[in-house]
């Protein structure tokens, strides 16, 4: 029985280590955007006036959901139309250029990414539209616009590894306590 507190403490420490670190990015989320036959929560991430691809996605290869430029362009247009119709601000952080828009990345190499850019109303200008694709953008180059990140809203979430680990440790501790009691 004296091992039970130590096991539970170890499990709590492991869960603390497994928790993801939060980034210092400003974000806003538009929920339930219908793209194709699925719904997505679209989060717009920006850090001040110089957000880079690597600040948002890291240095690895994020799992983009678009297989080609046409799909990415269609999705960017749907996001732009939804934001326009609801008055949603897709640029959550400060913005020196006074531009209200977002970047939807759809391709990536070790050093570059491709993107469509959706523009909303800008101060003194009523232009709204979609530009792109912009290919061969440097992953570390600054961008005053926010990055749009899509997450499926119609999918059942999978338990986090830390939660599964904690459950396994708790079940193991209970089995160990039962075994010691029986002995």
TrEMBL record:
<dbReference type="Pfam" id="PF07589">
    <property type="entry name" value="PEP-CTERM"/>
</dbReference>
<keyword id="KW-0732">Signal</keyword>
<dbReference type="InterPro" id="IPR013424">
    <property type="entry name" value="Ice-binding_C"/>
</dbReference>
<feature type="signal peptide">
    <location>
        <begin position="1"/>
        <end position="23"/>
    </location>
</feature>
<feature type="domain" description="Ice-binding protein C-terminal">
    <location>
        <begin position="157"/>
        <end position="181"/>
    </location>
</feature>
<protein>
    <submittedName>
        <fullName>PEP-CTERM sorting domain-containing protein</fullName>
    </submittedName>
</protein>
């Amino acid at each position: 029985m004296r091992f039970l507190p130590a096991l539970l403490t170890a499990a709590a420490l492991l869960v603390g280590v497994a928790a993801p670190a939060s980034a210092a990015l400003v974000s806003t989320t538009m929920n339930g955007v219908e793209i194709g036959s699925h719904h997505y929560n679209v989060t717009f991430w920006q850090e001040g006036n110089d957000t880079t691809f690597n600040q948002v996605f890291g240095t690895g290869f994020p799992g983009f959901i678009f297989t080609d430029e046409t799909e990415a362009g269609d999705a960017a247009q749907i996001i732009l139309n939804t934001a326009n119709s609801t008055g949603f601000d897709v640029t959550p952080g400060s913005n020196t250029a006074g531009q209200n828009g977002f970047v939807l990345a759809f391709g990536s190499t070790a050093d570059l990414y491709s993107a469509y850019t959706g523009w909303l109303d800008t101060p003194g200008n009523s232009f709204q539209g979609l530009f792109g694709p912009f290919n061969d953008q440097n992953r570390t180059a600054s961008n005053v616009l926010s990055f749009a990140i899509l997450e499926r809203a119609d999918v059942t979430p999978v338990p986090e590894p830390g939660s599964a680990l904690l459950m396994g440790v708790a079940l193991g501790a209970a089995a160990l306590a039962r075994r010691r009691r029986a002995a």
